Every structure is written in structure tokens, then in C-alpha cells.
Amino acid sequence: MKKIVVYLGNINPKKNSSWGIFNVSMKILESLIASDKFEVTLVITDSNNDLFSKVVCKKIYLPERKSTLANKIFLDNYSLNKIIRKLKPTIVLFPRGFIPLKKQKKTTYISLICDLIPLFYLKRFNPKALLGIFLLIFSMKFSDKIITISEYSKKQISKYSKKQIEVVPLGYDSKVLPTLKTPKGNAVFILANKNPHKNLIKSIELIKRYNSLKKTNFKISYHTGKLTSEELARDYQNAKFSLFLSDIEGFGLPLIESYSYLTPVVFNNKTSLAEIGESLPGKCDVNSEESVFNAIDEVLHLKESKVRILRDALLKRYNWKEFGKKLIEILD
């Protein structure tokens, strides 16, 4: 049985990380613990114990520190290395991608890299993204092996790292969001926030323009803050279609979420969205108004029976059982 340390540190979706990476981390832990191939040790801070109270494995707690670059590189690194020297694990897995400066011999350091957004801002020199850019590139270069979530992400990571890169697509659990029995509404749910790569303003203007040209009256729905699962479910259910014009996505989970509510998606046919949505209608070029409007027309003409077929195919292809199976194969 292999010893594996899963390092999550001070991960907390309520304070310093997304619910997305937290949920993926939980699925990783579930898969490893359910397997009979690994002896799992979870490394977290003491204040996060409540978040992982239902995780049944050995736990080691780090000292509580501020989430700063200096602490990540030096103090957290020092504490983690003391743990690794003592446990002598075969593998140390970093679901958040972070790799320490110093590595122990005979231990394989594996990072999961989901978020490539910092690379988008690297090309546009955004000072606010410098910390994320530094940690991401550092992890890509110093990992012994990298796991990522799409072929697009693998291609981008390979530009910075020559290490082995494995692809494990994320899963989706349709039970995560509430089931609603209300009829479909007449809104367009824009899957965007204020980050420039999400193209929120452009999306709003395109729907206004479509309404004017086509004499439609679609209501525009979007949110720039965090949503509860009930709010998110309601927006998907009330939408005639969703609009997902992001310039870059590492995976594109909202596309699958939307279809789970039988709400088709008009999406930018680039990055991982082109991969996840390969067999779907609604592809468009975000820089072409004509392309976007043609894609809207296409999804509006879809029959519900066809949307159900598309939804079922997505849920069959992207599920956590397959995610766990492939993850174990790579780590074993």
C-alpha cells in the first residue's frame, strides 16, 4: 500500500479559494480513501478541520498563518518538509497546484493544475495576477508529474513544463444543485463575472443588440458575486439559454451545469470550451456578432428532446466515478 500525502494547507472556499477547487479536492480524497491502494494523510490547517470533518483518514495540522507569498514559499514549505521527512510518503499530491522549493528524495511530487487564467493575464501584464502567475509557473516547472483537466490545459502547460502531464477530466454531479419543477423562463443567463476574460460587458451588449434586431425581449440575468446553489439553480432554470463567451477556461463546468437544467448554451468555441462542447450546438466566435447571433438562433430552435439527449451524453461522459478511476490509475 502506497503512502500518499494530500496537501491542502489553508484551503477555505469561504475565505481564500473557490468552491470549485474545494469540491475537486474532496472528490480526490473520496477516491483515494475508497481505494485499497493508498494510505492517505491529509495536511491542513487546524481552523479548516470542520470542512474536512467527514473525511476519514489520518490528518496532520499546520500552524495557522496568513496566506502570503512569503509564508507559502518559506514557512509552509518548511512545515511540510518536516512532515514529509517523517512520513516518507511515496507521493505528495497538491490539488491546489503548489509545489515547495525543497523536495525530498524518493518522493514523487504531483500537482493538479486546473486554473490557467493567470497565463491569460501574463500576456496582458496584469500586476494583480503576479502572485498567481508566479506560483502557477513555479508549480509547472518543479512538479515531478502534472495532472490537469483537459487536453487544452495539457497543451498550454506543455509550453512551460517538460514533465509528464496526464489529463483527468472533471466530473459533474447533477445532485449538487437543487432540482426545480418550475417552467422555463424567458431570460438569458450570462455565465460571467467582472474579470476581463469573462467578457461580461460584451455579452450584455450582444443580447441587447439581438433583442433590438430580432424583436425579442429576453431578460438579461448575470451575477458578479458568489451565488448560493439555490440561486444558481433558479438562474439556469429561468433561462431560455445560457451565454458563455469566456476567452479562456481550463475546463468549463458551467456548460455542463446549464445543460443539466435542459438549458442549452451559446459558447465561445475556443480553449477547453471547444473540447467539452465539441458535439454541441451553439458554437460561436466571440469577436463576430453574426457568429454569436447565428449560434443563438441555433439553440433557440432545439427541441427539448434533443436537449435531453445532449444533456445525458454530457453527464455520461463527465462523472466523478470516471474521474476517480482514472486518477487512481495514474497514481498507482
> What letter string, H or E per element, gives the SSE order?
EHEEHEEHHEHEEHEHEHEHEHHH
Through-space gap between termini: 9 Å
Number of domains: 2
Could you say what the CATH topology of the largest domain is called?
A: Rossmann fold
Name the strands of the widest sheet in spatial order: 3-2-1-4-5-6-7
Number of helices: 12
Query: Count the strands?
Result: 12
Spell out the key features of this protein.
alpha/beta; Rossmann fold; seven-stranded parallel β-sheet; 12 strands
Chart the SSEs and their pairings.
Layout: E1 2-9, H1 19-34, E2 38-45, E3 58-62, H2 69-87, E4 91-94, E5 108-113, H3 117-122, H4 130-142, E6 145-148, H5 151-157, E7 164-167, E8 187-190, H6 200-214, E9 219-221, H7 229-238, E10 239-244, H8 253-260, E11 265-268, H9 271-276, E12 283-284, H10 289-300, H11 304-317, H12 320-331
Parallel strand pairs: 1-2, 1-4, 2-3, 4-5, 5-6, 6-7, 8-9, 8-10, 10-11, 11-12
What does the model show?
With 332 residues, the protein is an alpha/beta fold. The protein has two domains: 2-167, Rossmann fold, CATH 3.40.50; 187-317, 3-Layer(aba) Sandwich (Rossmann fold). Helices cover 42% and strands 17% of the residues. A seven-stranded parallel β-sheet has the order 3-2-1-4-5-6-7, with helices on both faces. α1 packs across α12 (320-331).
